[in-house]
């Protein structure tokens, strides 16, 4: 009998003596409503748009028929009803946040994990992750189980599932002590362990840029500015603008809610100002009290966010001594609720429609997750523990050093930049562009730009309602909601140009011994977006 069977038998015996769920957890599962169907975002016209959640889950997605045999499947038929429902609840969250093409694997490995632990607590799941990493003979299946279990742990923690069974501690700080297993065949998104999916980050950045472009246009005369401010007062909802400011500060700076409550209007500083734009910074209070009296930390913020904060301050009639945000909106729940509302406003129209019809629920991303996303991102870009601690407002280097220790090798980052991983071709869930059209059918504006010292003009059309594009035309189109890719467009040429630019930057990085060149991340994201458009067009043509 192998170790897996022994472990399974031991787990079953333990469950008979002590149930996996506490009474509070069981009540949580029973009170949580499982939807009857879930919207499959990113599905093409040849896939199922909805997944029926009754009985076995069967659906077609990304060109293949898929199923999860919850009724009599090997890994599911021995689970108690409440445990099976918990697997389904986590699987629904996985569909919302990731590609539905691998949710069958997610459900299977989560069920396996639940059958191998004595109780479903944070510590037991953390212990399971450590045991997988410590196994010298782990294989690809073990690594898959690690990352799906990691996802499950994060989802349940965000849902306050562990509230009654674990002490309240920051899960992400605990996860920094868990090494990540490496595997050359494993997807880049799991391998780099992003706390917030890159496409969610892109959606927030684009949304804030659009809002700033519409609400704070460049005006030359004082009369124009006064007239615009009067117009804005009539049309803007200050609660929504407050949500946007909270989301922007949490996303870019990683502030805790308690830090937001300590931030005054005077902490938003205009460092430089000229006709070409402004440079803003924010004075960040330390996250935790220190024995020493330490000045606030000055952190640069994007021009777009700075303008929106100043607009909010002006419309609210606040002085430099006033608190930037009301106290009632800077506790943990109001901040997390503000982030959720803003993510809905930034989402594509089909997601908004599904949410309005109660067919879809947005994934939950908390302020704590955004804070750790800042720490991970800085570590990925070569920041030192001292720099990370400074930006996050930490008075010691303990947590910051864990971010650095948890960072994958530079070889993994270079592998991402080279785009050799075939997972990218299957990530159609992350499509952010509009519908594909033939160039002969498009009557609106067309996109043109220079990439890799070559002019590209047969890419697609732009449906943005404003005359001026707030983004980098061409480079930012692939991945933009307003971009309409041409089915007969020269996308392969665009991809080749991005490859040339990446090669050039990578050579510069090698020659100058720069481990993490800042342009590589952005160029790689642009390249991935082009690859998704090409893959989407290929699927349409094959059908």
Explain how this protein is built.
Residues 1-18, 184-192 and 409-432 have low confidence and may be disordered. By secondary structure, this protein is mainly alpha-helical. Strand 3 and strand 4 form a beta hairpin. It has helices at residues 3-17, 23-31, 81-97, 103-115, 122-134, 140-158, 171-175, 188-191, 198-215, 222-235, 238-253, 257-261, 303-316, 332-346, 349-356, 367-380, 385-392, 398-405, 410-418, 491-511, 518-542; strands at residues 37-39, 50-52, 57-61, 64-68, 268-274, 277-284, 297-301, 445-446, 449-451, 454-456, 460-462, 483-485. The chain starts with a helix and ends with a helix. The protein has 21 helices and 12 strands. Helix 4 (103-115) crosses helix 6 (140-158) and helix 9 packs across helix 11.
How many helices does DSSP assign? 21
Structural class by secondary-structure content: mainly alpha
What integer is the average pLDDT?
Answer: 79
Arrangement of strands in the largest sheet: 5-6-7
Unreliable residue runs: 1-18, 184-192, 409-432
Instruction: Kindly report how far apart the N and C termini lie.
Output: 48 Å
Helix content: 40-55%
Q: Proportion of β residues?
A: 5-15%
Strand count, sense and barrel status of the largest sheet are: 3 strands, antiparallel
- Per DSSP E runs of 2 or more residues, the count of β-strands stands at 12
